[in-house]
Every structure is written in structure tokens, then in C-alpha cells.
Amino acid sequence: MALQKITVYSAPGGPNPFKVVIILEELGIPYDLKVLGYAALKQKPYTDVNPNGRAPAIVDPNTGLTVWESGAIIEYLIDQYDKEKKLHYDGFAEKWQQHQWVFYQVSGQGPYFGQAAWFNLFHHEKLPSAVDRYMDEINRVVGVLDGVLAKSKSGWLVGDKCTYADLIFVPWNEMIAPVSAPTPEKWDINKYPAYKKWAEGMKERPAVKKTLELQGQIMADAQAGKY
Amino acid sequence: MSSQEPSITLYTTQTPNGIKISITLEELGIPYKVQKIDISKNTQKEPWYLSINPNGRIPAITDTFTDGQTINLFESGSIMQYLVSRYDKDYKISYPPGTREYYEMNNWLFFQNAGVGPMQGQANHFTRYASEQIEYGINRYQNETRRLYGILDKHLSTNKIPYLTGEKCTIADIAHWGWVASAGWAGIDIDEFPTLKAWEDRMLARPGVEKGRHVPDPHKIKEVLKDKEKMERYGAETRNWVQEGMKKDAKKPGQK
């Protein structure tokens, strides 16, 4: 039976919805991306979909379920649609390692990189101690990944293949270069060779490439005032 | 089979993230050993601990896996998922995988781990620990924490439910409790959120929460928050080791 398209809600910028899009592209699941402006995200009818008023959220007509929070959405998609185990392992130990890295991404990488972006790019005045705090945290988070990847024989976080636990990091990895641009002394990817190889390798995957191009297009449209 | 029995060691400190795990274990009635990690002495950055959790944060657990080998688990959210998936066969504090309720529980679990925890943590930092007073930082994170509390409060009140996913207390509730109980520490007045406050009290009345919150040390934040002088003293002590730890982290970004 053919799958019906899953509706994915996105903001006009920002990496989190594209974590979800990468998984949909990798699994070849049909979807319909709906980009909402920030005002629309904070009011009905969207807040009936996600009471938090943030993106992403999905509505899946195949199961009748609505899911929000990018980490919960990705776990849902893997559970429901990765029956061939293209992007995951279902052995018990690997399963928990995957969950662990998902939580590390959503609670460690995402929120802190996001704050670095705010203080380095958007805030109206320079607050050096706040910039330092979050640029240091980017380095710490990447350092942890680099240390683990350097020890991994396969170069992946879990097992011998690229899983959703790796892919979930891609959109925020991509943010480091633009976020650190105002403080180049605070970021040098060459300090983290295992991380660099891993992060750059994932960008070669067709699904990742396609998603990042789509994200770039949406952000360009947003700057042109489309949303 | 003996390897099916839990043989859990919990590595923890008296913090909102640490007590998520002890409360979960108490609610499930699982025996466990506790090893206290002294954050003020940077124990969490020692090599033996990094081999359990490369991130150098609490909580973490070790358990004997179904194959008889030890498994290391870190990230509070994934530890909670692990514990209920493996040991909550009667679904006392979770729902069967694949059900609608299961995914709804997961929404709120991630909401805590990716939203309330990090943002309230930043509010703590700028309100209590920062080396300089940055008014903007304080406001930014207190406002975001308040926004998130507002979502929880409204969700509970409009749906008229005692717990976040309905009639049953789940790991999604447990994940939030320690943070909501220390709202005042981040400068948030819980009285602004009456339904959430009632939920906090409802949770506290549960024997598992009462027992689990005092691990590895007594849970004192509520008393501290009632006493302004105590609060200042506690803040000053914590500020010192938080700043020391930050300096050490900044010096060695990689942890190879």
C-alpha cells in the first residue's frame, strides 16, 4: 500500500526541521513540507498541532498521529518506517546507544549551538562572556564527539554504518561555520580530525545534500520576505 | 536467568537531572547501588567516569545486559527510556511501545530534555553563577523558562489531566519534576502557574518521588528557596565550583 504524504511543519529558518527531513529523504518517505512564518507558529491552528509553538511537528495520515519535538519525531519515523533497518540497529545494546546520542543531540548540541548563534549573530550588543560561554560549549560538545569517533573503528557513532544517531547532528554541525564567523579565533575544525571526517562525509550522502539545498532555498526565500 | 535481573549502579549528584533516575528506579521498585559523583571535585571528568559517559556529565548508569555484559548508559532521557523499556513490564510509569500514548509521552520527554532543562539551566547560570551580571541573559532565559512553564500549565489545565499524558504518571512527568521543584532557583515564581504547582504537589505526594528525590543527598532545594540567606550562601558556594569547572573545560576543548 502506498504511503500517504506526511505533513512536516517547518519554520522559515533554523536547523531542527531539517533533521526530520534528512530522515524522510533517507528512507524515501513521501512528505509535504509546510513552511510557516514565526507569527503563524505561535498561534492556532498550529498550536493545536504543537502546543509548544515551535517547529518541527509532523502529522502522519497513515497512522493518524501528530508528533512534535524533533527527537521524538525521528524516533517515531524510525520505529514506523525503517523496517529494513537502513538507518538503525535493533539489537538491544545498539538501540540504547542510538537513543543516547539522540538525547545528546537534542539536549546538548541543539540548545547550546542555538544560544551561540543568538549571541554571536543576532543579539544587538556584544556580550563577550556570553559569546565565550557558548563558543566554549560548541568546542566541548564537538570535542566529545571527536573523542568518541576517534575511537570508533567504523567512524560512526553506533555500529558499522551511518545511523539516525549520526544524521541527527548534521543540521547543527552545519551551523558552526556561520555561527563562529564573527569569532574565528574560537573555532578551528582541524582540531577535531575524526569529527571533521565524519561531519564532511555525511554531507556527501544524496539525501543530506538534497535536504541542505532545500534548507538553503527556504532560508533564501525567507530573506526575500516570502514567509 | 540471572542476567535478566537488574544490577544497576547509578552515578549521580543531587541535581534535577540526577533525581530523574532515582525517582524512576523508586517508582519501578528496582534495587540499585548509588555512587555519588562529586562535581565540586570534577570527578565526572576523571578517565574512569569518561569511559562510562564520554560527555562527563551526570547521571549515568551501568547495568548487566541480557548478554551478561555490562552496558553503560548516559543522557537522562535515554536512561529513563531504557529503564521502562526493560523493567516496566506492567506499564506502571510508561505506555506500550508503538501506542499513541507512547509517542505522546515521548513528545513531553523530549520537551523537557531539549527545552525546559537546557533553558532553565541557562536561567540558573545567568541568575546565579555568571561571573558578571548580564541583565539581558537573565531575562532571556527566565522568559523562555516561563514560556515553557506556561505551555505545561495550559496543557494540564485545558485537558483537565492530572499528569502530562493523562491519568498516569509517566517518565515524562518524572523528567520535569526536579526542574519544576527548583523553579525559584532560576528566578521563576511557581505561583504564576497554579495548575503546574498543583501537579508538582501531586507528584511529591507519590512515595517513589519522595524516596527518589533524596538521592544521593537530601533534596533541600525547597527549604533553601524559603530562606533567603541560605539561598545566597548556597548560590555563592555553587558559583565557585561552577566557574572553576568552566575554566577547566575552556582550557581543553577535546577530551581524548
Question: In summary, what is this structure?
Answer:
The complex is a heterodimer of chains A (227) and B (256). By secondary structure, chain A is an alpha+beta fold.
Fold and architecture overview:
The complex is a heterodimer of chains A (227) and B (256). Chain A has 227 residues and is α+β, with helices and mostly antiparallel strands. Chain A folds into 2 domains: 6-86, Glutaredoxin (3-Layer(aba) Sandwich), CATH 3.40.30; 92-208, Glutathione S-transferase Yfyf (Class Pi), Chain A, domain 2 (Up-down Bundle). Chain A contains 10 helices and 4 strands, in the order E-H-E-H-H-E-E-H-H-H-H-H-H-H. Chain A has a 4-stranded mixed beta sheet with strand order 2-1-3-4, covered by helices on one side. In chain A, helix 6 crosses helix 9. The radius of gyration of chain A is 18 Å and the shape is globular. The two termini of chain A are 35 Å apart. The relative contact order of chain A is 0.14. A 4-stranded mixed beta sheet of chain B has the order 2-1-3-4, covered by helices on one side. Chain B is an alpha+beta fold. In chain B, helix 4 packs parallel to helix 6, helix 5 packs across helix 7 and helix 6 crosses helix 7. Chain B contains 10 helices and 4 strands, in the order E-H-E-H-E-E-H-H-H-H-H-H-H-H. Chain B has a domain at 2-87: Glutaredoxin (3-Layer(aba) Sandwich), CATH 3.40.30.10. The N and C termini of chain B lie far apart (38 Å). Chains A and B meet through strand 4, helix 4, helix 5 and helix 6 of A and strand 4, helix 3, helix 4, helix 5 and helix 10 of B.
Q: Which terms would index this structure?
A:
heterodimer; A: 227 residues; Glutathione S-transferase Yfyf (Class Pi), Chain A, domain 2; 2 domains; four-stranded mixed beta sheet; B: 256 residues; alpha+beta; Glutaredoxin; 55% helix
